[in-house]
């Protein structure tokens, strides 16, 4: 009797795992192809060495594990900081492919080119 209960629990968990695996595959195939353009998040920071790393890691955690599939990249603009903000941003951009670092002039050029295209 005990063997029957253990086998029953094993099969229920195996079927549940298979269903979850199928759901994830369907989710990836369906939503990642539809959201190819996505949304870019632009963050402007100046002299935020104490807060920027925690803020960006929290944002990335919410984007990655919150399944925000429409956000494509996070662009962080440094507004001529005098502290180590730029060093922290450069290090984070090497760790995460979705973080792009730009100075404020480059970001302004990108925004102006979008305005002109409209």
Question: Care to describe what's here?
Answer:
The protein is an alpha/beta fold and 118 residues long. It folds into two domains: 1-34; 37-117, Spore Coat Polysaccharide Biosynthesis Protein SpsA, Chain A, CATH 3.90.550.10. The chain contains four helices and three strands. It has helices at residues 2-34, 52-65, 85-95, 104-117; strands spanning 39-45, 71-78, 99-103. A three-stranded parallel β-sheet has the order 1-2-3. Helix 2 links the parallel strand 1 (39-45) and strand 2. The longest helix is centred in the first third of the chain and has 33 residues, at 2-34. The chain is elongated, with a radius of gyration of 22 Å. The N and C termini lie far apart (72 Å). Residues 31-36 have low confidence and may be disordered.
**Largest sheet entry:** 3 strands, parallel
Q: At the third CATH level, what is the topology name of the largest domain?
A: Spore Coat Polysaccharide Biosynthesis Protein SpsA, Chain A
Number of helical regions: 4
CATH class of the largest domain: Alpha Beta
Instruction: Specify the overall morphology.
Output: elongated
Structural class: alpha/beta
Segments where pLDDT lies below 50 for 5+ residues? 31-36
Secondary structure layout:
Elements: H1 2-34, E1 39-45, H2 52-65, E2 71-78, H3 85-95, E3 99-103, H4 104-117
Parallel strand pairs: 1-2, 2-3
Attribute tags:
three-stranded parallel beta sheet, single chain, 4 helices, alpha/beta, 118 residues, Spore Coat Polysaccharide Biosynthesis Protein SpsA, Chain A
